């Protein structure tokens, strides 16, 4: 009798997330041990990410120290299987590529306050800054100084107001003209 060969399936959560992402086209993340799937085909989200990335590229043209990267994973320290994939990451290749700022665009179907649990995850992962853009409300919030399970400082504003990014970024990000739902 001939033995059946089954395809090798990943045994780690991150490998499963990669497999699911390739098979479905969804963004797959492992947050706190749970597999989270997110749609990425919303045109408002795509246009928002493109404009923010363009703004970073334009404002950092004199700074070769920073780059804006879409779909770059952020790992939980000491647990490479616990990983989030923000819409956009600003990082310094010279400093080992560690993300300094994550940008999340709230999906149209998001219930509640918009990514509150994910913000806590980023704080625990010691990400210095998290910018959440909400096209449903035409509002933004910048979280900074992660310590423990939450960010110590939260600044809020509306589209049209610039987001003042603290050091080491030290730039103002324009939000006028960002698309809304």
TrEMBL record:
GO terms for molecular function: endonuclease activity. The keyword Nuclease applies. InterPro entries: Nuclease_put_TT1808, Restrct_endonuc-II-like. SUPFAM superfamilies: Restriction endonuclease-like. Keywords: Endonuclease, Hydrolase, Nuclease. It comes from the Bacteria. Gene3D superfamilies: tt1808, chain A. This is Uma2 family endonuclease. It comes from Streptomyces genisteinicus.
């Amino acid at each position: 009798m001939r033995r059946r060969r089954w395809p090798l399936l990943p045994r780690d959560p991150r490998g499963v997330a990669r497999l699911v992402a390739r098979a479905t086209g969804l963004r797959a993340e492992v947050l706190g041990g749970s597999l989270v799937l997110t749609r990425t085909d919303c045109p408002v989200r795509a246009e928002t990410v493109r404009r923010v990335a363009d703004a970073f590229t334009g404002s950092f043209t004199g700074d070769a120290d920073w780059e804006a990267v879409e779909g770059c994973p952020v790992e939980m320290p000491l647990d490479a299987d616990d990983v989030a994939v923000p819409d956009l990451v600003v990082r310094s290749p010279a400093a080992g590529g560690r993300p300094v700022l994550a940008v999340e665009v709230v999906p149209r179907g998001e219930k509640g306050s918009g990514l509150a649990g994910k913000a806590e995850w980023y704080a625990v992962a010691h990400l210095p800054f998290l910018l959440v853009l909400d096209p449903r409300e035409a509002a933004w919030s910048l979280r900074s100084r992660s310590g423990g399970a939450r960010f110590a400082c939260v600044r809020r504003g509306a589209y049209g107001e610039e987001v003042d990014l603290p050091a080491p970024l030290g730039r103002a990000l324009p939000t006028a003209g960002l698309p809304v739902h």
